[in-house]
Amino acid sequence: MANIPLTYKLSFYDPSKPGGTVAVQNNNTNDATSTATQFSMAELLNTIGAGAPVYADNTAAVAGGLAVGDVYQTDGTAAAPQNIAGGLYAVV
C-alpha cells in the first residue's frame, strides 16, 4: 500500500482546455488542467468517506453486505493495518 501525503494534489483533465499534458507536481497548471481541477488527497478522502459505512475490517464489511469495490471506514477494532478508526478501504 502506498502512503500518499494528504497535501499531494491530483490533477484532473479539464475538458474546457483540450491539449497539453498532465504532469505530477503541486499546483500543476498547464494546457490540460487548471487549479480548479485539482484536489488534495485530504479533499478526495473526505468526499469519498462522507457517509461511508463503518466496519472493523474487510471480512466484517462483506458480512455486512458490501460488495467488491464498495468503500467503507474502519472502526479501529481490527488488527493492524485496519486498527485506526476512520481509515478508508475498498472491499476486496
Description:
The protein has 2 helices and 5 strands, in the order ββαβαββ. The chain is of the alpha+beta class. It has 2 domains: 1-50, no CATH class; 51-92, no CATH class. The model has no long low-confidence stretch (mean pLDDT 75).
Map the helices and strands:
Layout: E1 9-11, E2 38-40, H1 41-49, E3 54-55, H2 58-63, E4 71-74, E5 88-90
Parallel strand pairs: 3-4
Antiparallel strand pairs: 1-2, 4-5
For the record, the count of structural domains works out to: 2
Low-confidence parts lasting 5 or more residues at pLDDT below 50?
A: none
Number of strands: 5
Q: Strand order within the widest sheet?
A: 3-4-5
Strand content: 15-25%
Question: Element order, helices and strands?
Answer: EEHEHEE
Helix content: 10-25%
Radius of gyration: 17 Å
What's the overall geometry? elongated
Largest sheet: 3 strands, mixed
Category from helices, strands and their pairing? alpha+beta
Average pLDDT works out at 75
Separate helix tally: 2
Distance between the termini: 14 Å
